[in-house]
C-alpha cells in the first residue's frame, strides 16, 4: 500500500489463505471489501489510486473507508445504486455485495502478460485476438492505463457473432527500462448479450537501439576532419545526455564485405583476409 505512511497495518493487508467466518465482523466497516478489491486488482493501492492508504484506516469506522470504496467500485465499473446503510444493513445485504464481487472481480485479474520486444526508437506492434463464439454481437469499451508509451488503436471493439476480432496495441518506447500498462476490455451490457471483462498486462523489453540518423563522411587516410552532429531531444523537458563513442572496424577487402553481407542475418562475422602491403 503506497499510501500507507509509516507502514501498513499487517492485519488489514490481503491474505489469500484467510477464511471469512463472520460476515458482519469482516465487512461491516468496508475494510473487507477493500481487501477483496486489493487481492484482485493489486495496483489499486498505488499513489493516486482509489485504495491508496486504506490499510491505515481504523477498523470499525466504515464512514472513513466509504469514499475510497465507492471510488474504487466506480473505477472498476462495479458500482451499485446503494448507500452505506444498504450495504451494511444486515448480513443478507453484505452477502449480496460479496456475491456481486465474486462474480465480477475475477475478470479483472490479467489473463496473461503481453511482452513487447524490439529496438528503442522503432514502433513495436502487437495484435490481441478476441473471439466471440456466441450468436449475438458483443461490444467492449477499451481502456489503456499505465505508461504513455503504449497506445491503443481505439476505445471500443465490436465482435460479430461466431467470429473473432483483432485489436492492435503499439509501443513507442522512449527509454530502455521496462514500461508497464494494463489493457482492459470492458463488456458492455447495453448491447444485449454481455461478454466477460478481459484484462491484459503489457510490458516492454528493449533489446537494442536504432540509430536516429546515419552520417557518412569521405576523407583521406590520416587526415583530420571535424564535423558537427545535431542532437534533437524527443522530450518536452530539459534532458542531460551521456556521450559515448563506439568504433567498429570495417572489412579490409571487398570480398570480406560481400561475405559479411551474405551471412549478416546469422550474426556471424568473417575474419578479415590477409593482405600484402
UniProtKB/TrEMBL annotation:
What protein does this entry describe? Uncharacterized protein
Q: Which GO terms describe its cellular component?
A: cilium
Q: Which residues form a coiled coil?
A: none
Report any one BP term from Gene Ontology.
cilium assembly
Query: What Gene3D superfamilies does this protein's entry cite?
Result: Immunoglobulins (2.60.40.10)
InterPro entries linked to this entry: Ig-like_fold, PapD-like_sf
Amino acid at each position: 500500500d503506497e499510501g500507507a505512511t509509516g507502514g501498513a497495518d499487517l492485519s488489514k493487508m490481503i491474505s489469500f489463505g484467510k477464511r471469512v467466518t463472520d460476515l458482519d465482523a469482516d465487512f461491516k466497516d468496508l475494510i473487507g471489501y477493500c481487501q477483496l478489491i486489493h487481492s484482485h486488482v493489486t495496483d489499486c493501492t498505488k499513489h493516486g489510486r482509489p485504495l491508496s492508504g486504506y490499510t491505515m484506516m481504523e477498523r470499525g469506522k466504515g464512514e472513513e473507508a466509504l469514499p475510497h470504496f465507492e471510488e474504487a467500485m466506480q473505477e472498476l465499473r462495479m458500482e451499485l445504486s446503494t448507500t452505506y446503510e444498504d450495504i451494511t444493513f444486515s448480513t443478507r445485504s453484505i452477502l449480496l455485495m460479496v456475491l456481486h464481487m465474486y462474480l465480477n472481480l475475477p475478470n479483472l485479474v490479467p489473463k496473461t502478460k503481453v511482452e513487447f520486444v524490439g529496438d528503442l526508437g522503432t514502433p513495436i506492434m502487437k495484435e490481441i485476438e478476441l473471439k466471440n463464439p456466441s450468436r449475438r454481437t458483443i461490444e467492449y469499451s477499451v481502456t489503456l492505463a499505465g505508461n504513455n508509451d503504449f497506445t491503443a488503436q481505439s476505445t471500443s471493439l465490436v465482435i460479430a457473432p461466431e467470429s473473432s476480432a483483432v485489436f492492435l496495441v503499439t509501443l513507442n518506447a522512449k527509454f530502455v527500462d521496462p514500461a508497464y500498462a494494463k489493457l482492459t476490455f470492458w463488456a458492455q451490457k447495453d448491447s444485449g448479450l454481455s461478454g466477460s471483462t478481459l484484462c491484459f498486462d503489457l510490458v516492454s523489453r528493449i533489446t537494442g537501439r536504432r540509430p536516429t540518423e546515419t552520417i557518412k563522411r569521405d576523407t583521406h587516410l590520416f587526415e583530420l576532419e571535424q564535423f558537427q552532429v545535431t542532437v534533437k531531444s524527443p522530450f518536452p523537458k530539459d534532458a542531460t545526455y551521456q556521450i559515448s563513442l563506439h568504433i567498429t572496424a570495417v572489412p579490409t577487402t571487398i570480398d570480406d564485405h560481400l561475405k559479411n553481407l551474405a551471412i549478416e542475418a546469422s550474426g556471424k562475422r568473417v575474419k578479415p583476409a590477409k593482405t600484402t602491403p
